[in-house]
Write a structure and sequence with these properties.
- The chain is mainly beta and 340 residues long.
- It has a single domain, classed as Beta Barrel (Porin), CATH 2.40.160.
- 8% of the residues lie in helices and 57% in strands.
- It is built from four helices and 19 strands.
- Strands 1-3-4-5-6-7-8-11-12-13-14-15-16-17-18-19 form a 16-stranded antiparallel beta barrel.
- A hairpin with a 4-residue loop joins strand 1 and strand 2.
- The two termini are 28 Å apart.
- The N terminus is likely disordered.
């Protein structure tokens, strides 16, 4: 029943855009990204059709009776284009969903479920987002969390934004402690983006996430929270893009007397040649306690077939030196973006 209601709701938005747009109403948007991939995990080698975080959403603003203030909202759902109803699982799953207010001079306040400031601080460094070569394969902290309240300043000097988010635990338990405070976790970022150059400094405190060092040691992420510092920077110069990321993350408190720590590095680059975009990415995560290295290497090529459509191919390898992990993906696919 829930799946049918959700499908009908989204279907009605798509079927009647003239109605919702007549009064500066919501924008319906989304994308379909599908790849046909050879997936080799070192044990099994098979071909798969993948739906790479395809999504549909609605977002917009409402004028209020308060000067310089607008109501804002967004409801975005991931949709599994390839798997149908996936048995007992939903075709649609929640992505960034929130509501809030925006003041022309004082900034924006939103609440709901959405990407943390630390996750968004990756900016344009990740050239392979939502694919097997996504930096989340080796860099922790890539979280979309529930129950976030976030304030963002207006863009200062047309380039700088400060984001501050707090996340109450709402009675959840971590490491044997009940998290019932007003703000059990924090995520923040200071972002600079001039159009040509960009950079960000982000910090998480006691955020529920996975530290790969602990994961490789067999420690459940339910037994700890993590602190992290992320620094990113890059440039978009004519047809060239370069980006770099450094992150240090660790368990907020010792787990059974042990502190687990990851140090991650990512370098990426791309060049645009007419309709082509050639790109590459390399990442390394140094696992402190397990004394292992987790690496990511990826190459790809996109070809634009329209303003909002492309076909592409990519190769990715994610492996650990000592642990039994070696994943290789080779895929071809397409992406269509839409809005109305």
């Amino acid at each position: 029943m829930k799946k049918q209601l959700l499908a009908l709701a989204i279907g009605s938005l798509v079927a009647a855009p003239s109605l919702v747009l007549a009064d500066k109403g919501p924008t319906v948007y989304g994308k379909v990204n599908i790849t046909y991939e050879n997936v080799d995990d070192g044990t099994d080698d098979q071909w798969e059709l993948r739906s790479n975080a395809s999504r549909i959403g609605v977002k917009g603003t409402l004028d209020l009776d308060i000067q310089n203030v607008q109501a804002i909202y967004q409801a975005e759902f991931q949709m599994d284009v390839d798997d149908g109803n996936r048995g007992d699982n939903n075709v649609f799953s929640q992505r960034n969903i929130y509501g809030g207010f925006r003041h022309a001079n004082l900034g924006t306040l939103i609440a709901g479920k959405f990407d943390t400031p630390l996750k968004k601080a990756q900016m344009d460094v990740d050239q392979f987002g939502d694919l097997a070569a996504d930096i989340g394969a080796i860099v922790d902290g890539e979280e979309r969390l529930s129950n976030i309240i976030q304030y963002s300043t207006p863009k200062l000097v047309n380039a700088v934004t400060l984001n501050l988010a707090m996340i109450p635990g709402e009675g959840s338990t971590r490491a044997g402690e009940v998290r019932d405070g007003a703000a059990d976790a924090f995520s923040s970022s200071l972002v600079f983006d001039s159009g040509t150059f960009y950079g960000a400094l982000a910090y998480d405190s006691e955020v529920p996430t996975t530290v790969y060092d602990a994961d490789f040691a067999g420690v459940s992420s339910a037994d700890y929270t993590a602190d992290a510092v992320r620094l990113t920077g890059g440039a978009r110069i004519q047809n060239f893009e370069i980006g770099a990321l450094y992150q240090m993350s660790e368990t907020s408190d010792d787990v059974a007397g042990v502190s687990y720590e990851d140090s991650s590095y990512v370098l990426s680059g791309a060049v645009k040649l007419s309709r082509w975009k050639l790109k590459a990415q390399y990442g390394l995560t140094d696992l402190d306690q397990s004394d292992d290295d987790l690496t990511l290497m990826a190459l790809g090529a996109d070809y634009k077939v329209g303003d909002k459509s492309k076909i592409f191919t990519y190769y990715a390898n994610v492996e650990a030196d000592d642990a039994a992990l070696e994943d290789t993906n080779f895929g071809v696919g397409f992406e269509h973006k839409f809005s109305m």
